[in-house]
Amino acid sequence: MGLKEEFEEALESLKQIDFSKPNAERVPVFETTIRYLGGLLGAWDISGHQYPILLEKAKQLGDFLFRAFSTESGIPTPYYWWEKELPKGDTIPGENGVLVAQIASLSLEFIRLSQVTGDVKYENAIQKITDQLENTQNTTTLPGMWPSQANCMGPNLTFASRSFTLGAFADSAFEYLPKTHLILPKSTSAEQYLRMYRTALSTINEHLIFRPNLPGDPDILFSGTVNVHSGKPLLDAQVQHLGCFVGGMVGLGSRISNSTSELEAAIKLTRGCIWAYEHTPSGIMPEIFHTNPCTNTSSCAWTGLDTDTGFARIDDPSYQLRPEAIESVFIMYRLTGDRTWQEKGWKMFRAIVKHTHTSIANARLQNVMSATPEKGDSMESFWLAETLKYFFLLFGEPDLVSLDEWVLNTEAHPLRQAG
């Protein structure tokens, strides 16, 4: 992007940060890993390993976070009270009600840290978590998937929740399966992640993916939520903007397996989120809504009124500057080379900028079902780290962060594939 001066200014500021002694008493392990550790490793890789301070600080932060893995199960506590010193050899208490995304979305960053430092302790810690995830994958109430919450209090990971989603609380746990396969050289571990992804995808296709009943019967798909009651999985056709990454995930998986049918599904999933953008007054998809599901994924005659839009209910009409939809559009363009994806992305970009622009930044929106949405007084960091980056890459040259050579973590930090 040509921001070398700004990059070097950031490096100078980085030198003043001591990641072994954060200002906060309680450190969120997941958020710190995907944003800070992922950001440092991504900067190290994308800058061609020219700036040792990036690797030095990544290791310093990695070692700090590594202490949070000192639980009975080896699964890190979600919030690390780092100033509470433990007796030598003691462990940190595990917790119940831990979000599955918090424990299953650390692999890319810690494996990459092992790769660039040569210290296998980080990857070994992740392997212990991965083995427990695989051991429990087919023992949940919806075999093949993990529910949104986990119990990490004892020596082994267990699940009691009966809610299964690719949206909030669980999203990146599944996103990281094919991505971790890609970042690893060919190995037993790499095959393990692919095997777990294939197992999850089978369940996702059977229970979570649905065709919506919409005017004109567009050939699109959405991912919903499944709640298991009395052993029976029941689909809740709730669509979350957070779940729009699924098209890109399935697309990356299709490339690994060279599967035409999986690529077709990825295209339909991505088109689903584009549909949601194009059918609101603002041109922007709401945070959460419901549609009515079809009984199959092949065809579905419209059963509503001519005046209906297809949105059965708007649960949350806001837009939080989220990246998931444009992330999948970017991946679809890179996988297919079809410039229609760029056209769709440009339309999304114009609508977002039109409504979110302020004199100093971009703001979240209160209600995208209005033609002139009111702005909220906040801007999430992922607007810069992810949303704008994916728009930039969509219109960049294909060899810029090529998907043949790079894996983007859940905060869009680019990590080099090994081997």
Automatic annotation (TrEMBL):
<dbReference type="GO" id="GO:0005783">
    <property type="term" value="C:endoplasmic reticulum"/>
</dbReference>
<protein>
    <recommendedName>
        <fullName>alpha-1,2-Mannosidase</fullName>
        <ecNumber>3.2.1.-</ecNumber>
    </recommendedName>
</protein>
<feature type="active site" description="Proton donor">
    <location>
        <position position="31"/>
    </location>
</feature>
<feature type="active site">
    <location>
        <position position="324"/>
    </location>
</feature>
<feature type="active site" description="Proton donor">
    <location>
        <position position="287"/>
    </location>
</feature>
<dbReference type="InterPro" id="IPR012341">
    <property type="entry name" value="6hp_glycosidase-like_sf"/>
</dbReference>
<comment type="pathway">
    <text>Protein modification; protein glycosylation.</text>
</comment>
<feature type="disulfide bond">
    <location>
        <begin position="244"/>
        <end position="273"/>
    </location>
</feature>
<dbReference type="Pfam" id="PF01532">
    <property type="entry name" value="Glyco_hydro_47"/>
</dbReference>
<keyword id="KW-0326">Glycosidase</keyword>
<dbReference type="GO" id="GO:0004571">
    <property type="term" value="F:mannosyl-oligosaccharide 1,2-alpha-mannosidase activity"/>
</dbReference>
<keyword id="KW-0378">Hydrolase</keyword>
<feature type="binding site">
    <location>
        <position position="410"/>
    </location>
    <ligand>
        <name>Ca(2+)</name>
    </ligand>
</feature>
<dbReference type="GO" id="GO:0005509">
    <property type="term" value="F:calcium ion binding"/>
</dbReference>
<keyword id="KW-0106">Calcium</keyword>
<dbReference type="GO" id="GO:0016020">
    <property type="term" value="C:membrane"/>
</dbReference>
<feature type="active site">
    <location>
        <position position="171"/>
    </location>
</feature>
<dbReference type="GO" id="GO:0005975">
    <property type="term" value="P:carbohydrate metabolic process"/>
</dbReference>
<dbReference type="InterPro" id="IPR036026">
    <property type="entry name" value="Seven-hairpin_glycosidases"/>
</dbReference>
<dbReference type="GO" id="GO:0036503">
    <property type="term" value="P:ERAD pathway"/>
</dbReference>
<keyword id="KW-1015">Disulfide bond</keyword>
<comment type="similarity">
    <text>Belongs to the glycosyl hydrolase 47 family.</text>
</comment>
<keyword id="KW-0479">Metal-binding</keyword>
<dbReference type="InterPro" id="IPR050749">
    <property type="entry name" value="Glycosyl_Hydrolase_47"/>
</dbReference>
<dbReference type="InterPro" id="IPR001382">
    <property type="entry name" value="Glyco_hydro_47"/>
</dbReference>
